[in-house]
């Protein structure tokens, strides 16, 4: 069964697949205008509409992730928004990200260092696949140049997170309590970050 569903300003095509062998209900974002629901034979169109209403925020995040990952050859991500390479006269995107992250991070580190009274011995930048920030035993901070792809509040959270490691070299309760003082919505920012990866 196939039907249309309005989600905010989006019109989505919903494909409902009913099978006797399916015990649970599975909701999946196929692309930026198609949703699939796989369920048992007793799961109706009304049940599907109710599920879509309840899972609205999850769907919006899934659709956002797909749109962020779907870039044309002449596009790139810059602080959470899709931009055209030609508008920035970019020939080397990694070099561009490095220049921009070196402009963005130091003021954030300065701001939160003063507030937290925690000061790094150095700040370095590199392109990593998985590590977005780190704090070494000498209290030197490292930041991933690819942070430029995401909304600025992600970079802000990573800065606070790494500064907190100057005081707590672990992820103990005391560490997270410290992070929460300066970033009360850190859990939401972490969830947003994970949804964009």
UniProtKB/TrEMBL annotation:
Pfam families: YgjP-like. This is DUF45 domain-containing protein. It comes from Poseidonibacter ostreae. Residues 88-194 form the YgjP-like metallopeptidase domain. InterPro entries: UTP_pyrophosphatase-like, YgjP-like_metallopeptidase. Signal peptide: none annotated.
């Amino acid at each position: 069964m196939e039907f249309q569903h309005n989600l905010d300003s989006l019109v989505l095509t919903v494909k409902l697949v009913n099978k006797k062998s399916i015990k649970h209900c599975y909701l999946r974002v196929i692309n930026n205008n198609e949703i699939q629901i796989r369920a048992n034979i007793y799961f109706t169109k009304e049940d599907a509409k109710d599920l879509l209403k309840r899972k609205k925020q999850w769907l919006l995040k899934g659709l956002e992730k797909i749109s962020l990952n779907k870039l044309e050859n002449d596009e790139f991500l810059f602080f959470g928004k899709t931009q055209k390479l030609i508008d920035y006269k970019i020939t080397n995107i990694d070099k561009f990200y490095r220049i921009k992250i070196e402009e963005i991070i130091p003021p954030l580190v300065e701001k939160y260092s003063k507030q937290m009274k925690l000061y790094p011995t150095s700040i370095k930048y590199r392109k990593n696949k998985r590590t977005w920030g780190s704090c070494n035993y000498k209290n030197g901070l490292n930041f991933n140049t690819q942070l430029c792809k995401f909304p600025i509040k992600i970079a802000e959270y990573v800065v606070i997170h790494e500064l907190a490691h100057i005081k707590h070299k672990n992820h103990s309760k005391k560490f997270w309590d410290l992070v929460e003082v300066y970033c009360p919505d850190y859990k939401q920012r972490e969830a947003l970050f994970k949804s964009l990866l």
